[in-house]
Design brief:
The complex is a heterodimer of chains A (about 325) and B (about 280). Chain A is about 40% helix and about 20% strand. By secondary structure, chain A is α/β, with parallel strands linked by helices. In chain A, the strands form 3 sheets. In chain A, strands 3-2-4-5-7-6-12 form a 7-stranded mixed sheet, with helices on both faces. In chain A, helix 2 runs parallel beside helix 8, helix 4 runs parallel beside helix 6 and helix 9 crosses helix 13. Classes of the chains: A alpha/beta (about 325), B alpha/beta (about 280).
Chain lengths: ~325, ~280
């Protein structure tokens, strides 16, 4: 893509693959790391893990409630348990186990939602997870992380293993670009991809790259200087970065691969409103409707989550 | 080691204590607590290697009460085992008390927060897998209600526990045949229960769940190598108080003053009879 090349984006691989390799390296060094799968070792890119460390992989079959309960039991007995399952099942079917067995009982499980958002776009609503941020944000004692690129994925996986508290990691399955400014940053903080003060994009996960390219396009065509924050950690949110964006920029556009109800956008809106920061504001995401189907790219385009759509949305916001 | 007679004496005292705290709190799951008292008595006084001093130890046995609503029975047994002073139970269900109506880890001796049904067995399956991975010799126990068995998560775990050959895991079913809205067999029939567990690959024994000797024999060691153990404890809901026995409304009923006096009288009479004293 031309714009991607002009801002020096390098093609990376799927975050899921980065996760799997990072986890294998962690597990080789730390025998307490155990991965629990619900017939998901193939879709979770964990087949090499199973071959290399068979005694650190527990299979429970297609049974997500048991997956999370078993992971909670393993964690309570001293294991660093990673429960891996498609995000759509993990955070809906097993939500009560997440709430009670993991979060309420404070068993430090790392929940890994794979093929999240609309990664399985063409498979239909059963396989979309557009509710997970909202559902988990309303549960006490869990950190929610949606990495944007391979760099954030590595940081997130290592931090989750060391956290000692429940963590939800959310990964897509498509290859992603490696974003700029890949310097160590504190887990939980927003990552500044590009600075500016006309508009702030606050984006999470695999939408961050589109926000970054939209910022470049708005610079080239409209002369706007846009700030782009990648916010891998949805909860707890980097409140300072959000408030600065609202105070220092003329408009704020949040971007997420999630329904606009209860996700990153509404979290940011709450932060700004409570601090009495009035700013032009738009939440880009999936609207409250039966989601159109197609590839992830099709769905992003349909809901204006790609460069062109975000740029146009931003122009309207500044005009309005 | 306490004798069977001493254990039976303890069960009477536990029944008395749990009625007291339920009456004091004005809330509680009376019938189911009374039905599982003898099971908890045998576990905590004969089987489980747990104590207040070693509760955090990695090698301790684990007990997770899946039928969390019968927490009053668990509280009085834990108090008797010195996990906390019995007087603290006077705060049951009061504002900001840790002694809420279901088990929480804020109470010393409680392993896991339970209360939503169908959670104990999956968690215990995970703990038992960890025990196998670590070649640890601890055992893992959970107590399920028979009404609770309609929760599908139990059967997910039942399958997995047999698949992983978890002979360090024992599930005890407090089979009192009643649940909140009626007879379990009428609400959702679970019979033939022993056949179900056996078909899932478990070693199964059915016993009288109020017989401390039979309970001890059933849980003192795994029933079979390479298989998880299921003990179906046939019990009476409301056991020990004549007018509560096998009566559905005592699922979570609190006795009025007259009923309370009568219940304590019956239990005190049983204690006196146990000690060979006329009342």
């Amino acid at each position: 893509m031309e714009v991607a090349a002009r801002i020096g984006l390098r093609q990376g691989r799927a975050n899921l693959e980065e996760f799997a390799d990072t986890l294998l390296a962690l597990a080789r060094a730390e025998r307490r790391v155990v991965v629990v799968t619900s017939d998901s070792r193939g879709s979770g890119k964990l087949a090499p893990f199973g071959l290399a460390l068979p005694h650190q992989l527990v299979e429970v079959g297609i049974a997500e409630q048991n997956l999370v309960g078993v992971a909670a039991g393993l964690a309570s007995a001293g294991k660093i348990a990673f429960a891996v399952s498609p995000a759509c099942f993990l955070t809906a079917r097993a939500l009560e186990q997440v709430k009670n067995d993991v979060c309420y009982s404070a068993n430090p499980v790392v929940l890994v939602g794979i093929s999240a958002g609309v990664s399985y776009g063409a498979l239909g609503t059963t396989h979309h997870s557009l509710h997970d941020f909202a559902a988990l944000r309303a549960i006490n004692n869990i950190t929610i992380v949606a990495p944007a690129d391979n760099f954030e994925t590595r940081i997130a996986v290592k931090a989750a293993a060391a956290a000692g508290t429940p963590v939800y990691l959310r990964f897509g399955k498509a290859p992603v670009y490696e974003l700029p400014n890949a310097q160590e940053f504190p887990f939980g903080a927003a990552r500044l991809l590009r600075d500016g003060s006309d508009v702030a994009f606050i984006a999470s996960g695999e939408t961050a790259v589109h926000a970054l390219m939209a910022a470049q396009q708005l610079h080239e065509t409209d002369g706007l200087n846009c700030r782009v924050l990648s916010v891998p950690t949805i909860k707890p949110l980097d409140v300072v970065a959000v408030l600065r964006a609202g105070r220092e920029c003329r408009a704020v556009v949040t971007v997420e691969e999630h329904m606009v109800n209860g996700g990153l956008g509404e979290a940011c809106a709450g932060v700004l409103a409570r601090a009495r920061v009035g700013v032009r504001f738009h939440t880009a995401g999936i609207p409250d409707e039966y989601t159109v189907t197609g590839s992830q790219a099709d769905i992003f385009r349909h809901y204006r989550l790609t460069m062109e759509g975000l740029a146009e949305t931003t122009r309207s916001l500044l005009r309005g | 080691m306490l004798t069977d007679a001493q254990l039976r004496r303890k069960s009477l005292q536990y029944r008395r204590s749990l009625l007291q705290i339920i009456k004091h709190a004005g809330a509680g799951h009376t019938g189911g607590s009374l039905s599982c008292v003898d099971i908890l008595n045998v576990l905590y006084n004969r089987i489980l290697r747990v104590s207040p001093a070693t509760f955090g130890a990695a090698g301790r046995d684990r007990y997770v009460q899946s039928k969390g609503h019968s927490v009053e029975a668990l509280f009085v047994v834990l108090a008797d085992r010195d996990f906390f002073p019995v007087a603290e139970l006077e705060t049951l269900c009061q504002y900001q008390s840790h002694f809420v109506g279901h088990p929480t880890r804020k109470v010393p001796g409680i392993e896991q927060n339970t209360g939503a049904l169908g959670h104990g067995l999956p968690i215990c399956t995970g703990i038992a897998i960890a025990g196998k991975l670590d070649a640890a010799d601890y055992r893992v126990f959970t107590l399920l209600g028979d009404g609770e068995l309609a929760e599908g998560s139990n059967w997910e775990a039942a399958m997995a526990a047999a698949h992983h050959r978890l002979d360090n895991l024992t599930a005890i079913i407090d089979c009192n045949t009643l649940q909140i809205s009626g007879r379990t067999r009428e609400v959702m029939n679970h019979e033939p229960l022993a056949d179900k567990w056996a078909a899932f690959g478990w070693a199964v024994r059915t016993i009288d769940g109020h017989d401390v000797a039979a309970l001890t024999a059933a849980v003192k060691s795994p029933l079979a190598l390479g298989k998880p153990t299921c003990v179906i404890a046939r019990t009476t809901k409301g056991k020990g108080v004549s007018f509560m026995e096998d009566v559905c409304r005592w699922h979570h009923g609190v006795p009025n003053d007259e009923e309370y006096a009568r219940a304590l009288y019956e239990i005190d009479a049983a204690i006196a009879a146990h000690e060979g004293v006329a009342v």
